[in-house]
Request: fold
Amino acid sequence: MKIPKRHKQYRLFSFLLFLNFHLITIHANAVELDVPYVETPPELVEVMMEIAKVNADDYVIDLGTGDGRIAIAAAERGATGMGIDLDPVLIAKANQNAIEAGVSDKLQFIEQDLFETDLSQATVITLFLNEEVNLKLRPALLKLKPGTRIVSHMFAMGDWRPLRYQQALMNNNGNFYIHEVFYWEVPGN
Reply:
């Protein structure tokens, strides 16, 4: 009995879905992340760039960079910098996105633990982590040069009051979400 072509295509499609699901599962189990990857909406990336006044004089470090969109937006404003993430798949995607955006010469994406990252060259630190990780990171951030700007999407840092705070209402396919942006500067000694 001959199997119809449509049935073969369906079986191939089913197999590819199965394979994709298992590869994602294997990858997710192979890389232990403190924070899951969630995309920052492009409009909110722009809010973060505006609130931090990112410009060509800046060296931006994006912690938990994901696909690199925040670091890339900074490079499009003339800044240089790097993105840090534990996920090698996302680091590869960030590098590809930087090439496609024409800013790969201004950025470096590194697969490493953000707590082991030298932050001393940063003039701007960007974050989309969670409050627990932000609080663990806070002592290292407070040791940076006075005036270093820190911008966090969605999550505060305990009792460290932001200098600026902005909410943005985002529409995701008819579902509306309020996103928050927090801004601090490292105080002088």
Notes: The chain has two domains: 1-30, 42-185.
